[in-house]
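FORM 12-B: Structure-to-Sequence Request
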């Protein structure tokens, strides 16, 4: 509704200051032309919105203007009271603070809406832990946090994926939790990198301050970085026929294989499908584990390689039994 959008524009300008038409349009998922019409409507209604022209221009409210729109809708209350991950709060050392803040927030809303908040707590719970708890430990997590808040450079010793340890001085910009795994986002000589926090072997807070890059947005950076990472992942596609007895197992597991497509069953009941793996080695190990329940159609070289692996396995156990 337009009324809701006008209120949203007002609150955005009040909380964030100057915003461009493009930014507002993206935030509210409308066209830039719609934003211009909304600004005209706000101005007609007596709201002091000002358009600054030029390279650093944008929309803003006149100084000292504050709206008294503080009412919360039911869905807005629900969004505020959805519990975050207790594991992530524990990692950040904020569990107690969050519980106290929740009580203060509850006290600040009308008593008639308390039931809405209670309903959210009793119906929605967010758990970012895997079924098998990770043993990853982050030795210098408090130092990472302190450096981010204080905007101090960090000297870190970092273990790369290949096991090699390197030492770097970086500007820590933020922390991102992917599931229950933390990543440090930092820059060095204007080069942004993601560091798995559990691989930071040591971190030393320096006395040297740094300035955060102007306009840096952690959320947008992580989205762009994630998209770039996904596009760079290797892909090894395999065309197969699957026995109906293992269809549910194939659909259930998404860690080692991606089910791209599954067609209608053939006359013999087997189901044509396209599977995607990161590497050929993963494909060989995965398919071999299903024995005679997956038939490879393409590529032929994969079929030959799995045949050779199976033959070597049989010969190995023949030798074992012959001892």
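FORM 12-B RESPONSE
SEQUENCE OUT:
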């Amino acid at each position: 509704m337009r009324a809701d959008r006008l209120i949203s524009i007002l609150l955005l300008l009040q909380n964030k200051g100057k915003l461009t038409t493009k930014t507002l349009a993206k935030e509210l998922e409308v066209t830039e032309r719609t934003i211009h019409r909304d600004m005209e409507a706000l101005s007609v209604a007596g709201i002091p919105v000002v358009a600054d022209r030029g390279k650093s221009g944008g929309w803003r409210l006149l100084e000292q203007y504050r709206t008294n729109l503080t009412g919360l809708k039911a869905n807005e209350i629900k969004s505020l009271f959805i519990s975050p991950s207790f594991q992530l709060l524990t990692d950040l050392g904020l569990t107690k603070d969050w519980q106290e803040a929740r009580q203060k927030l509850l006290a600040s809303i009308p008593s008639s809406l308390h039931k809405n908040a209670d309903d959210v707590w009793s119906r929605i719970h967010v758990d970012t832990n895997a079924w098998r708890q990770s043993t990853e430990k982050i030795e210098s997590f408090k130092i990472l946090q302190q450096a981010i808040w204080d905007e101090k450079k960090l000297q870190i010793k970092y273990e790369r994926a290949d096991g090699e340890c390197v030492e770097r001085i970086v500007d820590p910009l933020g922390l991102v939790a992917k599931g229950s795994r933390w990543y440090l986002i930092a820059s060095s000589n204007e080069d942004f990198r993601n560091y798995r926090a559990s691989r930071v072997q040591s971190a030393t807070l320096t006395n040297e301050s740094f300035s955060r890059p102007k306009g840096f947005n952690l959320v947008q950076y992580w989205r762009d970085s994630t998209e770039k990472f996904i596009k760079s992942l290797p892909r090894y596609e395999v065309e197969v026929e699957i026995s109906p007895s293992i269809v549910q197992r194939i659909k259930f597991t998404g860690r080692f294989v991606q089910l791209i497509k599954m067609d209608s069953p053939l006359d013999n009941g087997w189901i044509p499908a396209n599977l995607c793996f990161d590497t050929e080695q993963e494909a060989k190990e995965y398919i071999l584990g299903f024995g005679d329940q997956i038939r490879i159609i393409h590529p032929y070289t994969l079929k030959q390689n799995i045949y050779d692996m199976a033959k070597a396995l049989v010969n190995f156990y023949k030798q074992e039994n012959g001892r």
